[in-house]
């Protein structure tokens, strides 16, 4: 059984890592929620950032999230080839 089958909500192709300080910043969290075309980012009731696991594989690698956050705080990992997008 593959890991994906055991954990159906775990993304197979894409993972997004966000620095803690950014995830706790309500302004940046709201901006990320707004820019991502496939709703990978959401804001919780306390206005911190949530990564929507079930949408991760919808990532279109548009880099809008990288532009919306301070440099070096977000990494979009392409699990299928081991590379990542960052700025
Ligand atoms: S690269 Fe684009 S689609 Fe992927 S998480 Fe960032 S904003 Fe969303």
Q: Write the H/E string, N to C.
A: HEHHEEHEE
The CATH class designation is: Alpha Beta
Beta-strand portion reads: 15-25%
Number of β-strand runs: 5
Q: State the end-to-end CA separation.
A: 36 Å
Classify the secondary structure makeup into a structural class: alpha+beta
Instruction: Give me the number of helical elements.
Output: 4
- Tell me the CATH architecture: 2-Layer Sandwich
Cofactors, ions and other ligands in the entry: iron/sulfur cluster
Q: Total domains, how many?
A: 1
Mean pLDDT: 92
The dominant shape is globular
CATH fold-level topology: Alpha-Beta Plaits
Strand count, sense and closure of the main sheet? 3 strands, antiparallel
Helical residue percent band: 25-40%
